[in-house]
């Protein structure tokens, strides 16, 4: 099961009720692993339609344990804002780290 990231967009402590579309979505999330540079994920909200209460959910995977930085972007009042969060994942969500087959050629 893919983990869900839930964002509550607020301004002055109150939910933002008007989030503008930006590049085809009401928000964007990029997840980057610090330990596995091959893991880069870009997601749009799975929330249907315009988020009227400032809440948006995204599906994003964390395949291996380690540090991840999550970049999120939202357009509010005509201005794009980017927020970053760095987290430590203690257990990946089930994917195994790649292991090279000993018969595989290195090129």
What does this entry show, briefly?
The chain is built from no helices and eight strands.
Topology:
Layout: E1 4-8, E2 10-11, E3 14-15, E4 28-33, E5 40-43, E6 55-59, E7 66-76, E8 79-89
Antiparallel strand pairs: 1-6, 2-3, 4-5, 4-7, 7-8
Notes on the structure:
- Mean pLDDT is 82; it is low at 94-107.
- The chain has strands spanning 4-8, 10-11, 14-15, 28-33, 40-43, 55-59, 66-76, 79-89.
- The protein is elongated.
- It contains no helices and eight strands.
- It has 107 residues and is an all-beta fold.
- It has a four-stranded antiparallel β-sheet with strand order 5-4-7-8, with no helix packed on it. Strands 1-6 form a two-stranded antiparallel ribbon. Strands 2-3 form a two-stranded antiparallel ribbon.
The overall pLDDT average reads: 82
Percent in strands? 35-45%
- Low-confidence runs of at least 5 consecutive residues: 94-107
> Which strand order spans the largest sheet, edge to edge or round the barrel?
5-4-7-8
How far apart are the termini?
34 Å
What's the total helix number? 0
What structural class results from the helix and strand content? mainly beta
Q: Total strand count, please?
A: 8
- Tell me the quaternary state: single chain
The profile of the biggest β sheet is: 4 strands, antiparallel
Q: What is the radius of gyration computed over CA atoms, rounded to a whole number of angstroms? A: 17 Å
Question: Portion of residues in helices?
Answer: under 10%
**Global outline:** elongated
């Amino acid at each position: 099961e893919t983990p869900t990231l839930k964002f509550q967009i607020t301004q002055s402590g109150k939910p933002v009720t008007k989030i503008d579309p930006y590049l085809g979505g009401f928000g964007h999330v990029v997840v980057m692993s610090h330990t596995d540079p091959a893991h880069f994920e870009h997601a749009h909200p799975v929330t249907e339609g315009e988020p009227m209460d400032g809440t948006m959910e995204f599906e994003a995977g964390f395949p291996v344990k380690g540090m991840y930085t999550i970049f999120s972007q939202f357009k509010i009042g005509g201005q794009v804002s980017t927020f970053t969060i760095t987290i430590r994942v203690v257990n990946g969500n089930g994917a195994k780290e790649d292991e090279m087959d000993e018969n595989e050629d290195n090129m």
